[in-house]
Amino acid sequence: MSELVPSSIDAAAHGHDHVGEPVVVEIHGLRATLLRAARLLFEAALVPTALLALLLHYTNLPIALAGAVGWCYLTVAFRWYRNRHLPGTLLLCAGMFSGRAAVALATSSAFIYLLQPVVGSVVMALLFLGSAALGRPVTVRLARDFVTLPGHVLARRGVRRVFTKVALLWGASRVADAAMNISFLHWGLNAGLVSRGLLSPLLSVLTVALCTWFGWRALHRDGVKLRLVRTAAPAPVPAPASATV
């Protein structure tokens, strides 16, 4: 498959509709990619959040944050020792968690720790919605984590509309995520931890499923058929817009 490069994206954004014969785009290693994403979600979101909630209940904020951060870096060290390879998403999650923990320690506030992802969700919503409004949806670039679309496919007006609508769906999802977390924080820290550690990842998974279903059907109607291929080289795993702790 040909690689999607910025020039092809620019051509797709400004080119004409090239609707010809139906094209087939192969998707390699989808099952393996989904399994890796599930493992990363467990390691980088669910476990550290559970540790933080448990330790906050029995100890204090510094110990709770140290335990959760320690889990993240223990996971990083184990992955490196076992595979000599570190997923970019895992490093991103560990780095973001460390930054948020440092701010929470500096302010001595667990509430500030849980409020930071809300700001992140708002920024992500503005990114998705703004790119869709400008006609250059960021979802075109994010799609490269799953499938490589040739330039002549992106040149189809219908395909560009699909990516724009997917960007709108993700923007709406991030707005819902921010509103949900703010609402749960009003009920207390424990409710905020449940929302951030469980409901936010679940919302991201549901958004991925909805966008995949919608994009698959819409592309098929536009003459682009996606075909799953079982054997493939490992594909990179994308960073969930809001699946971090």
Which tags fit this structure?
single chain, 245 residues, mainly alpha, two-stranded parallel ribbon, 9 helices, 2 strands, 71% helix, 5% strand, disordered N terminus
How would you describe this protein?
The protein has 245 residues and is mainly alpha-helical. It has one domain. Helices cover 71% and strands 5% of the residues. It has helices at residues 6-14, 30-58, 61-83, 88-107, 110-133, 139-142, 151-154, 157-185, 189-221, and strands at 23-28, 224-229. A two-stranded parallel sheet has the order 1-2. Helix 2 (30-58) runs antiparallel to helix 3 (61-83), helix 2 runs antiparallel to helix 9 (189-221) and helix 5 runs antiparallel to helix 8. The chain is globular. Residues 1-19 and 232-245 have low confidence and may be disordered.
Can I get a quick summary?
The chain is mainly α and 245 residues long. It has helices at 6-14, 30-58, 61-83, 88-107, 110-133, 139-142, 151-154, 157-185, 189-221, and strands at 23-28, 224-229.
> C-alpha Rg, in Å?
20 Å
Overall, the morphology is globular
Helical segment count: 9
Order of helices and strands: HEHHHHHHHHE
Question: Structural class of the helix and strand makeup?
Answer: mainly alpha
Q: Please list the strands of the largest sheet in the order they lie side by side.
A: 1-2
* Helix content estimate: over 70%
- The N- to C-terminal Cα distance equals 35 Å
Q: What amount of the residues lies in strands?
A: under 5%
Low-pLDDT residue intervals, each spanning 5 or more residues = 1-19, 232-245
Q: What's the story with the biggest beta sheet?
A: 2 strands, parallel
Instruction: Provide the domain count.
Output: 1
What average pLDDT do the residues reach? Answer: 77
Tell me the total number of β-strands: 2
